[in-house]
């Protein structure tokens, strides 16, 4: 059994979260520059077995597509070309950034630490992954 891997895709940075091999616990892995995502995944897949890539699906409150979805739509064919046998799933990511910030407050991080946008992206990816796991 391989890991599940989730991406919180952004214009500048992409948060990445993974599960353990038994797919029980979701944990933040890192945040990478969005331009480096495919290279990062290539290197990661050489070391770790991954069963599925989960990508957040940004939506507005009225269920319409968010503007960042256009960038994700450009990424999807690149991922499919590079990793043709890797299933890709999408998960609604509404409120994940807000929930990530709330998680940071609840965990006692200081204001300076809460301004770390890379950490917010990583926590958001973890929330996307947890949301996916609850659907299984």
TrEMBL record:
<keyword id="KW-0378">Hydrolase</keyword>
<protein>
    <recommendedName>
        <fullName>Putative pre-16S rRNA nuclease</fullName>
        <ecNumber>3.1.-.-</ecNumber>
    </recommendedName>
</protein>
<keyword id="KW-0540">Nuclease</keyword>
<dbReference type="InterPro" id="IPR037027">
    <property type="entry name" value="YqgF/RNaseH-like_dom_sf"/>
</dbReference>
<keyword id="KW-0690">Ribosome biogenesis</keyword>
<keyword id="KW-0963">Cytoplasm</keyword>
<feature type="domain" description="YqgF/RNase H-like">
    <location>
        <begin position="2"/>
        <end position="100"/>
    </location>
</feature>
<dbReference type="InterPro" id="IPR005227">
    <property type="entry name" value="YqgF"/>
</dbReference>
<dbReference type="InterPro" id="IPR006641">
    <property type="entry name" value="YqgF/RNaseH-like_dom"/>
</dbReference>
<dbReference type="InterPro" id="IPR012337">
    <property type="entry name" value="RNaseH-like_sf"/>
</dbReference>
<comment type="similarity">
    <text>Belongs to the YqgF HJR family.</text>
</comment>
<comment type="function">
    <text>Could be a nuclease involved in processing of the 5'-end of pre-16S rRNA.</text>
</comment>
<dbReference type="Pfam" id="PF03652">
    <property type="entry name" value="RuvX"/>
</dbReference>
């Amino acid at each position: 059994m391989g890991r599940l891997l989730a991406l919180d895709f952004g214009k500048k940075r992409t948060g990445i979260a993974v599960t353990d091999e038994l797919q029980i616990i979701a944990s933040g892995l890192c945040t990478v520059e969005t331009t480096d995502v495919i290279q990062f995944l290539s290197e990661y897949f050489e070391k770790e077995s991954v069963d599925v890539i989960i990508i957040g699906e940004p939506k507005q409150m009225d269920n319409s597509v968010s503007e960042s979805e256009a960038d994700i739509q450009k990424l999807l064919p690149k991922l499919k070309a590079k990793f043709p046998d890797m299933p890709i799933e999408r998960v609604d990511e509404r409120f994940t950034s807000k929930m990530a910030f709330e998680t940071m407050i609840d965990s006692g991080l200081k204001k300076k630490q809460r301004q770390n946008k890379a950490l917010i992206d990583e926590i958001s990816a973890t929330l996307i992954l947890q949301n996916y796991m609850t659907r299984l």
